[in-house]
Amino acid sequence: MINPFYLTGIIPGKYFCDREKETNTITSLLENQGNVLLTSARKMGKTQIIRHVFDQDEIKDNYYTFYVDIYSATSLREMVFFLGKEIYQRLVPKGKRALSRFLGTVKSITAAFSLDPVSGNPRINLQLGDITTPELTLEEIFDYLEAADKPCLFAIDEFQQIARFPEKNIEALLRTHIQKMNNCHFIFSGSDRHILEQMFSSYSKPFYNSAQPLFLDRIPKEKYVGFVIGCFAESGREIDPDAVSYCYDLFDGYTFYMHKVFHDLFARDTEARLIGKDLVSETVDAILGEGEHGYREQMASLSTIQKQVLVAIAKEGTVSQPTSGGFIKRNSLPSSSSVQKAMISLMESQYVTYQMIDSKRSYLMTDKFLELWLRLIY
């Protein structure tokens, strides 16, 4: 039987857990020519719900859909490169007519495309260095989307990265193009809720009030427990509801980590009549064991104070005031200034993130597996 706990790719609707309300909301907003601002913590399922929405019949049958993750982009040129490559790769299966329209519009990088001399099929030779005039290429890309023969939907994940680009006025540049478009609408998504909400809710910002905000929270425990029980029952196996609940609490409802555990547990060859908490714990331990070498390398790359602060956050789970006397004393840390410096580095390297609770930052580790491993080791 196919493992129902998908970790990558498009999840078949049958194995997509809950998110019915969110799916319907996003689909409706896009069909009614709206833009969406989708935020959540990392590993909560943003990418999967975008793909799920794009796989709905009313969307996939009537729109060109594009998805690009710009998390690794550090400049406008890199972002434009990712946008152009995504459009090209999505259009190739649509046939030569759709592709010809794209190449006829995006002329600044046409030289990066050619026909295979043997098969006659189009091929891409696009490299970052081919984007020599990113603002012009960006304009051409938006011109293509506006003139495409079908409406377009474009999801740009980790959109907050544009705030870190060295070029000035990127938000204004993008907004200038997007606000004139009728044939393409956007999902702007990301995990840095604070930056994104500033972009879209601050009156002084170019993207002010230009997208409907939607926060993707945890799947309710009862929904997730029922989903897991059903998946195992379909294969003729029984899992204890308390074991599923234990896993949910262990990872605080973060979808990816729970799915990874049940994916691996489902693949295990066990003769247990009832899968209980002990097998869930064994599976978690196996995952941590597989990642141990990488975890040790990560820790070796940190300074002593960075490691101390990270371990302290792992042990406490969430920390509202990492430079407070209480946190420093409980964890035998040095001065508040050194802790603050370490926190800046840990945030920049994505070891630590934060969520807003009652308008205040609460810091926590980004990787829940690494967090568990640190608790075990230290």
In short:
By secondary structure, this protein is an alpha/beta fold. 49% of the residues lie in helices and 13% in strands. It has 16 helices and twelve strands.
Question: Which short descriptors sum up this protein?
Answer:
single chain, 378 residues, alpha/beta, Rossmann fold, Helicase, Ruva Protein, domain 3, Arc Repressor Mutant, subunit A, 3 domains, five-stranded parallel beta sheet, 16 helices, globular
Walkthrough of the structure:
This protein has 378 residues and is of the alpha/beta class. The chain folds into 3 domains: 19-215, Rossmann fold; 221-297, Helicase, Ruva Protein, domain 3, CATH 1.10.8.60; 302-377, Arc Repressor Mutant, subunit A (Orthogonal Bundle). Helices cover 49% and strands 13% of the residues. The strands form 4 sheets. A 5-stranded parallel beta sheet has the order 2-5-6-1-7, with helices on both faces. Strand 3 and strand 4 form a beta hairpin. Helix 4 (76-91) runs parallel beside helix 6, helix 9 crosses helix 10 and helix 10 runs parallel beside helix 12 (277-300). The radius of gyration is 23 Å and the shape is globular. The model has no long low-confidence stretch (mean pLDDT 92).
